[in-house]
Amino acid sequence: MNIPPLTNNDSLFVKREEGNQYYVDSDMYIQKGYASTSAILLNLISLSNDRYLRECYIYPVMFCFRQYLELTMKDSILYCRLRRRVTYSGESNLEGHNLLVLWDNLKMYLDKNDSEVKNVHKIIAELNTVDNNGELFRYGSSLTKKVLNRDIEMPLIDVNVLFTRIVQLYRFFEGINHMARNGFDEIVDNQ
Question: pLDDT at residue 173 above 90?
Answer without folding.
Answer: yes
